[in-house]
Write a structure and sequence with these properties.
Chain lengths: 595, 595
């Protein structure tokens, strides 16, 4: 049976020692997010994720969702579990209190999001999508729309779904064909078909609030002719009750490699009632705000599957005994637990070197996103916004690529048992695979990084981020315990700096050359960013060890992992620099038909 | 619907131009393996693999095998297809003609094996295991055993299975507990339970010939107390007919991530009749000969899934249109086929850079294995044997790791469609995953390489292999069309040489240090080996282009891919050298419980 224990020590370490959230007491919602309150929050979050969501993960995968005559039944237990999460107040943790949100710092909400995704990725999506729809309507909806929909989404009475993709329009939303025909009363009737829509039909909640992009006839072609609509499954009445069923139906659900407890459906609109959200023809821009926020969530999903897979691999590697110790050790039995084999260690430490730093970086990005919205100082808001915008594609792609790699390493630690459904580790490999694709494929993230994010604020975001890393390195170089990590990071940062300059020169002109190296460049960016987190962790750890305070085993582990990352992972940087700056001439030399 | 076309041009290019099989006309079976005969063989092989095996691949995965009261039913159509392959003479292609084999060169048999695995990996195992059991009995069985079993295995009337693993003994066969109790008539009765046994029970053939490792009571502990037995499902009668059912039963089959059309079962022995194969307590050595041969087959399985996944990705990338061309090109439509996007190109060329060279290297190893058995000259046999032994763990691990990577890249090219079962690409990702594990995990391959294979013949094997590469480089360096590839390979070979010296110094002493870098070392070895193949391909291509002969588009493609490999893949070498030689101190610094 697969296991999961929320890494509470890690969250507290990150929030209290790495992010030092107490620095932001003046930010609304942050004053009370430390010490005992934080501990209670994390404990309660862990309890419900471990106790209610996790036990349904493997059965949910085996049973899957069932489509019957347009209705979707979620796996056994999901309804009750969803009700528990809603009743206990776990929906809308960071959302606006005016409309029923809890107003907690985003860092806490995202810590919970990672735990819930680790416990049950499919289940977590029902809550995550409701929050995304809340955010979209909160940012772009009218006051009446907010009053009507947001409290129901925040309470969990209703859930949300986002309808973007059509069969021929996945990465290219210019091509969408779904039509919204204006009505005399100011509403619209929606006609068309959407594909690959997650959670648009299920039995967890009384109503589903769909936000849909569609074209109003006569609008310009392309992305400038797309508008956003809210299209509820049941039409809300003035008294808050539910009126008639709206004219959209789930025609089928897909059979998928993973994430089988979340329905992915084809949705037909037969003149469904919809209401414009925001301005006519501004739909794609509005949608992208929402998608951008959702990318942090997907990054954490990648991390979550790496974390739970790694936990299971460590658990197994401690129990499973195969082979002799290579160097005879008096205290090791024969056969030894496989965790004693250097190659198994290498796999486990590689996973840990990713998960522990990714959690820190992910929550650092969550903090920037939050500060960009809530900080009382406008300059701080702008700076945080630049950093969040820059880092969002980096962590979306890097964490999900690494999430897949880590889940596969975990499976490998299980040997033949890993290929069997019972142990549960192959489910993590299957489930995490979609995170490299949805909310913008990782290839698209890398184009977003080199074509848009590097030039934000005339490059201010990337300059600010590199300055932050430079300060960390300068502060650590004089410390003997940290010098090797600092030096490795300085070398890698220099590679990233060179690659960045190369990309910035091309991003406005020879875009094809930039695109040829974009994936390697993004990986380099992620690699160096996680190296920065390791240097910071090691700095905190070295101080604790030298002062003999706190949990010394915990800090020694951080120092050891930091050195591991610097020695074994960071050296990838020079190769990535070389690859990122090769251009694209060799990629497009052959005609497509000659490949 | 997934597609597969056997890459016949590639096979002919490799066999005729890279391996130049006509050089070995004096080797039995080789005289007639060229020109029109070769073309007819490859065409017929392609026809049955594409026409009979491939259409059953996706339905076979969906239906899976069913266990009922100890019997296993294979998916619909498998019986008829198996009969076709047997009747048309596709079993035992390279096996001894004295016992019903076809005596073809191993290179041809392995070309067919790759095609069949690409068409239907699960189906291919039924034939591959029969051939492995044939080889084991051929090498170690008595003449009577050979006469009794081999012709039936070669004709396909009976199939074979290998019973090694027990639940607690997968990578560590010292631990096996299955007992073989001697009987007065010289036979044995087998008691115990085996796990993860492939194809030990199914409905394709009248009988199943199981080879089983077990302990004779009183034998020494550990690997020196294990013997090999043949344990047929039905007891053969003197007249060649089938007698009573033997006392072994399939207690259950596993639910697996992939390869669902091949049963993986738990087998109980209740005093089953068995007969000793070879000498008492020499079973593990005998088994390892067989397993070693099987590792070439698994390497080609890794390649096969990369090949079919890549074909499907290319097919999709030519049809699917999303996004604008980055650099406006008059001849490209909007939206463009995604094959025009540099990042999609990068993925496709990365796959192709692996598959095309891996096929050459795999068939080169097949040639060495064959020459080691058949070459009339003893020195040539010994040399070929050293090269085959050296390269077997390299290609087993490298091709299956790359097979997984390539299948995942192919899935990524499909975007959201890749995650859906219909397109078939996610099946390749699931199916190929076991190849990194079975026949010895890839971690074990790397230990085999550094602990045993580098020191074979006092290092003669590795010296001979490096000399071969050095000759290729020297021959190419003066040619302007090849200089960049040759130079990149020289640099990478130098890294491999340094890492090899480092490993050889430690393999006899500080084994832990060697083990800490073994996986990175093996990857470096595989990387450079494929680089050698690319240099050879490019040399052939450059000659053809400069002479204006042959299929120029084909040869230009080879030159372009060779340069791609040299520029974008080979630079991994210096990173791998650094990692491979870090030792293991940082891996074992933390206690297992502190990870």
């Amino acid at each position: 049976m697969p296991v999961y224990r929320a890494p509470l020590k890690e969250y507290r370490f990150i929030i209290e020692e790495f992010l030092r959230l107490e620095r932001f007491a003046e930010v609304p919602g942050y004053a009370d997010a430390a010490g005992e309150t934080l501990a209670v929050f994390l404990d309660s979050a862990a309890r419900i994720c471990e106790g209610v969501a996790q036990p349904l993960n493997q059965p949910g995968d085996l049973e899957g969702c069932r489509w019957e005559a347009g209705e979707v039944r979620t796996p056994k237990g999901f309804r009750e579990a969803y009700r528990r999460f809603a009743d206990d107040g776990w929906i809308g943790l960071a959302l606006d209190t005016v409309y029923g949100g809890k107003g907690l710092p985003g860092v806490l909400a995202e810590s919970f999001a990672e735990m819930l995704a680790a416990a049950n990725l499919a289940f977590s999506g029902y809550i995550e999508l409701s929050e995304a729809v809340f955010s979209a309507l909160h940012a772009h909806g009218s006051e009446a729309q907010k009053r009507l929909y947001l409290p129901k989404l925040a309470s969990g009475e209703w859930t949300g779904a986002m309808h973007l993709t059509e069969a021929h329009a996945g990465s290219d939303l210019r091509l969408i064909r779904t039509r919204a025909v204006p009505q005399a009363d100011g509403s619209y009737r929606i006609h068309g078909t959407k594909s690959f829509i997650t959670n648009a039909e299920h039995d967890l909640a009384a109503n589903i609030v769909n936000v849909v992009i569609a074209r109003i006839p006569g609008s310009p072609e392309g992305s400038g002719g797309v508008s956003l609509f809210v299209v509820p499954k049941f039409l809300p009445q003035a008294d808050g009750g539910l009126g008639p069923r709206n004219a959209l139906e789930c025609a089928s659900i897909e059979h998928k490699m993973g994430l089988r407890a979340a329905p992915t459906g084809v949705i037909h609109y037969h003149g469904a009632h919809g209401w414009l959200v925001g301005e006519v023809n501004h739909g794609l821009r509005a949608m992208f705000t929402m998608v951008n926020d959702a990318r942090l969530g997907v990054a954490l999903q990648g991390l979550s599957q790496a974390e739970v897979a790694c936990q299971n691999a460590i658990h197994y590697a401690r129990e499973r005994r195969q082979g002799r110790a290579l160097a005879p050790a008096a205290d090791l039995p024969d056969p030894v637990p496989i965790i004693e084999h250097p190659d198994v260690r290498r796999m486990l430490m590689t996973m840990r070197a990713f998960t522990e730093a990714a959690r820190g970086l992910g929550l650092w990005v969550a903090l920037q996103i939050d500060l960009a919205k809530r900080h009382p100082d406008a300059a701080e808001r702008a700076r945080a916004d630049r950093l969040a915008a820059l880092m969002t594609p980096v962590i979306k792609a890097h964490f999900t690529d690494w999430g897949s790699e880590a889940a596969n390493l975990a499976l490998q630690c299980f040997g033949g048992y890993g290929f069997i459904e019972d142990t549960g580790v192959e489910q993590f490999v299957r489930d995490v695979r979609i995170t490299q694709i949805y909310e913008g494929t990782n290839g698209i993230q890398s184009l977003d990084l080199v074509r848009r994010k590097l030039s934000l604020g005339a490059g201010a975001g990337v300059r600010e981020f590199f300055a932050l890393l430079g300060q960390s390195i300068a502060a650590a170089e004089g410390d003997a315990a940290l010098a090797d990590i600092a030096q490795a990071l300085r070398t890698a940062l220099s590679s990233l700096g060179q690659a960045t300059a190369w990309m910035q020169q091309r991003a406005g002109g020879d875009v094809t050359a930039a695109a040829g190296g974009a994936t390697d460049y993004l990986r380099l960016f992620g690699l160096v960013s996680l190296g920065w987190v390791w240097l910071e962790y090691a700095r905190i750890g070295a101080a604790a060890v030298s002062q003999g305070r706190g949990d010394l085993a915990f800090h020694r582990h951080k120092l050891a992992l930091g050195r591991f990352y610097a020695r074994r992972i960071l050296p990838e940087a020079s190769m990535l620099l070389a690859r990122a700056t090769l251009g694209a001439a060799d990629l497009i030399e052959l005609a497509g038909e000659d490949l």
